[in-house]
Write a structure and sequence with these properties.
Elements lengths: L3 E6 L10 E4 L13 E6 L4 E11 L27 H17 L2 H8 L9 E8 L3 H13 L3 H12 L2 E3 H6 L5 H9 L3 E8 L18 H15 L5 E6 L5 H14 L3 E5 L7 H11 L3 E3 L6 H12 L5 E4 L11 E7 L16 H12 L2 E6 L4 H8 L4 E5 L10 E6 H6 L8 H13 L2 E5 L9 E3 L16 E2 L5 E2 L6 E2 L13 E3 L4 H11 L5 E4 L9 H10 L5 E4 L12 E6 L3 H4 L6 H13 L10 E6 L5 H7 L3 H15 L6 E9 L2 H18 L4 E13 L2 E10 L2 H20 L7 E6 L6
Bound molecules: adenosine-5'-diphosphate and zinc ion (2 copies).
The site of adenosine-5'-diphosphate (ADP) has 15 residues, from helix 8.
Length: 750
């Protein structure tokens, strides 16, 4: 029976980021635990605020009359009271605060994401409304009439006769009018019932269990043996798409569940396909649930509650599902582990892989990572023995690998072709249009800061200090986003003297226009940030393409993931160089991943596909290795570069970002911090300060400092020093009025 509780107030204000002590009222004595959410009076006016209990104690050396009392527990929220999980969550939050530099409140908020119990809701489901034989006849009719959407839905229902409405519309891309039409024709029935809000209710279909291959078995046995030996191992499975990774995850999770433990299965939201979900449901039935952004807040809260009560064995979801409150966690699987969505880009700026590893350590669980193109970081750790490496090298899905060719845009220019499409790509596009097959044109624009390159020889203007491409700023200046190096723009290529040197500006919209003029009969769809800003439009465009309502899909990296388009036999990567010169050290890695994935989009069906990679730098290693689909070759070359220049994973890097409405204040603090870091350790590799790449966003000025070191802890000390310095400035009444953020091993440029 503790008398006092230490509470962190949920407020994003550094100065208040410390525990405050409150009296525990008698009625809460039995329910309050570390990790509980509470409402407390705070500040002069005793405003009621949310807080997190981080510790309970009996003694408090202060006038009891002056200690405020906890006001209430949010309705029905018993926090983590039934197990020891609250303590783990707090330990994890403290670890995150220390490792990534954020307030304790922000770390706790991330780990304990608010859980509000909700009311039951109605779940809609779709079921087959006619006998199987009849349905099969109906299917033939749809096929004959080319009613592709209806055909797809019916096929799925013949596999699993009862499916959630939301899953059918969101993941299967079937529209409401189609469902209504099929329903009034008596083919399907839409049912509605009140449920305990499992977003997916599927009967555990008896699936033909696959006999694992020897290579697959070895992985499952290896991981489970480590687990049984009490080791919190991290295993990395490197295997191309279709090599049987998901089947391995399922077997590992089954093994863990047989041992009475629970599993967290992380998949980037964009890659979480209907087929993958179904496979898990077929194995785990209603003991599995899914967490994603299409769930409402209270639906999410319900999943946490079910997990907490032990009603679930497996949760599937993106990054945030890592914080599912399983008391007896056994395994965390991270699929597509290289995906940048696993990096949280708001405070605390954590890497999911690292937090998973720490959580696994606290829980004596194991971690399994999987990817066709592992992050440099994970592969490095696997080769140095920190992770266990497994490889799956055979493709089990059949289907021929696409043939990949490189189109040299310098040559095209010489031949007088100034269009965005090379001769070869034009030829293949026409061929696919003639044959009625589909094509995808892909513009890898992510993180494109506007580099300057020579269209005659491919030369890119780089920073002499950082070996990073310079970014084009307003007024034509060229700037390095790491060290701030600047030079005026160039009129001719320093290598070959060509006047065709400039920034590259084509966007998806121009390409769409161009295609419409060049191929007047073709049906073109565009998928990018503009066309998908409205809710549901992303799925709508993809479903329309999947239903073959268009011949060509033009888009950004949004199109390369997750979805299978068996009708696609041609993929064109319009300018591979784009992401290559994004102005940060991960650019080549990202390019390799994007190109490999994009190439994998072609030829999923029976017809072999073609891939054309257009570039001004045909001999760049990222492009060459991607066209050969050679991960290990790429890794070897890339790690050499990272080691030479001390970029992660060969070393570590801390980005300190200063942001203010007042440019002078941001600049001044940046200077002070730089001095502080250098004074502490004259050997330290302190780079900058430089102006942030989007120097002025929403009237905020940004400055960045980078520090590199082999030793991560040294960077943590720099962060601690900076925090202490800021606290000191505030204390002596000289608040710099600059927002400071830390980013360890950043994966994008600032
Ligand atoms: P990945 O996750 O690596 O893309 P999957 O696990 O999805 O690979 O497997 C690809 C395909 O091969 C799936 O259709 C799966 O059902 C099938 N498959 C996986 N393992 C086996 C196996 N041991 N025997 C036969 N088919 C398998
Ligand atoms: Zn040149
Ligand atoms: Zn530089």
């Amino acid at each position: 029976m503790s008398k006092y509780a230490e509470v962190i107030i949920d407020i994003s204000y550094n100065k208040l980021d410390r525990p405050f002590t409150y009296k525990v009222p008698g009625r809460m004595q039995d329910v309050l635990q570390p990790g509980s959410l509470v409402m407390v009076p705070f500040g002069k006016g005793d405003t009621i605020r949310k807080g997190y209990v981080i510790a309970l104690k009996d003694e408090f050396d202060y006038d009891p009359a002056k200690v405020k009392e906890i006001a209430e527990l949010p309705v029905n929220d018993s926090g983590y009271s039934e197990d020891d999980d609250g303590a783990t969550a707090i330990a994890l939050a403290a670890w995150m605060k220390n490792r990534y530099g954020s307030t304790m409140a922000a770390a706790l908020k991330t780990v304990l994401t608010s859980r509000k119990p909700g009311k039951p809701v109605k779940t809609r489901e779709i079921e087959l409304a006619m006998p199987r034989e009849e349905a099969e006849k109906q299917l033939e009719i749809y096929v004959r009439k080319h009613q592709v959407a209806r055909e797809r839905l019916l096929r799925e229902l013949l596999e699993v006769p009862r499916q959630p409405y939301s899953l059918v519309t969101s993941k299967l891309h079937i529209t409401a009018p189609v469902i209504r039409a099929m329903s009034s024709a008596g083919v399907i029935r839409v049912t509605e019932e009140e449920s305990f809000r499992n977003p997916v209710v599927l009967s555990k279909a008896e699936k033909d269990h696959k006999e694992l291959s020897d290579a697959q078995k070895a992985i499952v046995q290896g991981v489970l043996a480590d687990y049984d030996a009490g080791k919190s191992t991290v295993s990395l499975i490197h295997g191309i798409t279709g090599s049987g990774k998901t089947e391995v995850y399922i077997s590992i999770i089954k093994g863990i569940c047989e041992r009475g433990k629970k599993a967290i299965m992380l998949i980037p939201e964009i890659a979480l396909t209907y087929q993958t979900l179904l496979r898990f449901y077929q194995y785990f039935g209603e003991r599995v649930s899914v967490m994603n952004s299409s769930l409402s807040e209270s639906e999410k809260a319900d999943q946490w509650e079910r997990a907490r009560r032990g009603e679930l064995d497996v949760i599937i979801g993106p990054r945030s599902a890592l914080f599912t409150p399983f008391a007896d966690l056994g395994v965390i699987v991270i699929d597509e582990e290289h995906e940048s969505s696993y990096k949280n880009e708001s405070m605390p700026k954590y890497h999911t892989r690292e937090v998973a590893r720490e959580l696994a350590r606290l829980k004596h669980a194991c971690v399994v990572l999987g990817s066709a193109t592992p992050s440099l970081d994970s592969y490095y750790k696997a080769l140095t023995g920190e992770y266990r490496l497994y490889t799956l090298s055979e493709r089990l899905t059949g289907g021929t690998l696409p043939s990949v060719e490189i189109a040299d845009l310098r040559q095209e220019l010489k031949n007088g072709n100034r269009s965005i499409l090379s001769e070869r790509l034009q030829e293949l596009l026409q061929d696919r249009l003639d044959k009625g097959e589909q094509s995808i044109l892909f513009l890898n624009r992510r993180g494109v800061a506007g580099f300057v390159s020579c269209r005659s020889c491919g030369t890119v203007i780089k920073c002499p200090h950082c070996d990073i491409s310079l970014s084009l700023h307003r007024g034509g200046r060229l700037v390095c986003h790491y060290c701030g190096f600047e030079r005026p723009g160039v009129k001719e290529c320093p290598e070959c003297g060509s006047p065709y040197i400039s920034g590259f500006r084509a966007g998806t919209e121009q390409i769409e226009e161009h295609l419409k003029i060049r191929y007047p009969g073709a049906r073109v769809l565009r998928l990018d940030a503009d066309t998908t800003s409205r809710k549901g439009s992303y799925d709508k465009i993809l479903s329309s393409f999947a239903n073959r309502e268009a011949d060509i899909l033009v888009g950004t990296q949004m199109i390369v993931k997750g979805h299978d388009f068996p009708g696609v036999t041609l993929v064109g990567i319009l300018l591979a160089d784009m992401s290559l010169y994004a102005g940060d050290y991960c650019a080549a890695e990202r390019t390799f991943q994007l190109l490999t994935q994009a190439a994998g989009r072609a030829g999923r069906g029976e017809v072999p596909g073609n891939v054309v990679i257009q570039t001004y730098q045909p001999d760049n290693y990222a492009i060459e290795y991607a066209s050969d689909q050679d991960y290990v070759g790429f890794y070897r070359e890339e790690i050499r570069y990272r080691s030479t220049l001390l970029y992660p994973p060969a070393a570590h890097m801390l980005c300190v970002q200063m942001q203010s409405e007042d440019e002078d204040k941001a600049e001044k603090l940046a200077g002070q911090l730089r001095e502080l870091f250098v004074r502490d350790d004259p050997e330290a590799l302190v780079i900058g300060p430089a102006k942030g790449s989007l120097t002025k966003i929403r009237d905020q000025y940004r400055y960045v400092i980078y520090i590199k070191d082999i030793n991560y802890d040294k960077l943590v000390r720099c962060k601690d020093r900076a925090e202490a310095f800021l606290a000191y400035l505030v204390k002596i009444g000289r608040d710099p009025q600059v927002q400071v953020q830390f980013d360890f091993d950043p994966v994008s440029a600032y």
